[in-house]
């Protein structure tokens, strides 16, 4: 038997509630601690959303559902992550996106905690990209040059030029440090987006941060056993 802590609910079920800034700090800090460990093992979760984050009455948080998780160096498809929390590079079908796809998802979840509303609520994958660009602004040529998919590149070029929105206007009641962190997690360019380790060092978490608790895996996750075909006795 595997005995695990009982978590009373998940973030999706309580997303309509009003979160204090302190609770947002504590919950997002735990998300990022979990991601730092997962990423250090060479794993990308790929399906982070409120329903995959279990919480209990003490505000403790656990990351669930690794059904879509993959090694960071594996070739990965674009059809992952619930659309509203999907990073732009996944929508644009970059086959070799990296672990910061999870950081984008955390940014979307954090934004929803701040307002109670989904930040990027696209009707389909093209509309999802449009909703993202309405906030991040139309990317420059340096970003477009990195796109391998010509169809995606042409689609973005066909869109009207949109300026980047000021997140402090979108989140007028939010802690300025929260807004700054969001801006750094919701970067279109994966090379400019924060890693989990960098995000944990952001001043927004100073109240709760304990560096000793921000652990890393001692080695990369070995999934070779998942491909073994053994009998019950052999597994034992």
From TrEMBL:
Residues 212-236 are annotated as: Disordered. Keywords: ATP-binding, Kinase, Nucleotide-binding, Serine/threonine-protein kinase, Stress response, Transferase. Pfam families: Pkinase. It comes from Buceros rhinoceros silvestris. Residues 224-236 have a biased composition (Basic and acidic residues). It comes from the Eukaryota. Its EC number is 2.7.11.24. Gene3D superfamilies: Phosphorylase Kinase, domain 1, Transferase(Phosphotransferase) domain 1. One of its GO terms (molecular function) is MAP kinase activity. InterPro entries: Kinase-like_dom_sf (IPR011009), MAPK (IPR050117), MAPK_HOG-like (IPR008352), Prot_kinase_dom (IPR000719). Residues 1-205 form the Protein kinase domain. Its cofactor is Mg(2+). The keyword Lyase does not apply. Belongs to the protein kinase superfamily. CMGC Ser/Thr protein kinase family. MAP kinase subfamily. The keyword Transferase applies. This is mitogen-activated protein kinase.
């Amino acid at each position: 038997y595997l005995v695990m802590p009982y978590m009373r609910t998940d973030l999706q079920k309580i997303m309509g509630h009003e979160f204090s800034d302190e609770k947002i700090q504590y919950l997002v800090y735990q998300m990022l601690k979990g991601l730092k460990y997962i990423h250090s093992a060479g794993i990308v979760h790929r399906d982070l959303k409120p329903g995959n984050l279990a919480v209990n009455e003490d505000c403790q948080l656990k990351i669930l559902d690794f059904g879509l998780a993959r090694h960071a160096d594996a070739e990965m498809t674009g059809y992952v992550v619930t659309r509203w929390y999907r990073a732009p590079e996944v929508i644009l079908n970059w086959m070799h996106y990296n672990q910061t796809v999870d950081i984008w998802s955390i940014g979307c979840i954090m934004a929803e905690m701040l307002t109670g509303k989904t930040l990027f609520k696209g009707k389909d994958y093209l509309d999802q990209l449009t909703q993202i660009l309405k906030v991040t602004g139309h990317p420059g040529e340096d970003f477009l040059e990195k796109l391998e998919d010509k169809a995606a590149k042409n689609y973005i070029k066909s869109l009207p030029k949109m300026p980047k929105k000021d997140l402090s206007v979108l989140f007028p009641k939010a802690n300025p440090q929260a807004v700054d962190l969001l801006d750094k997690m919701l970067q279109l360019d994966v090379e400019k987006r924060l890693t989990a380790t960098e995000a944990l060092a952001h001043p927004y978490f100073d109240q709760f941060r304990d560096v000793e608790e921000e652990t890393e895996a001692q080695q990369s996750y070995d999934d070779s056993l998942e491909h073994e075909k053994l009998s019950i006795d052999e597994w034992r």
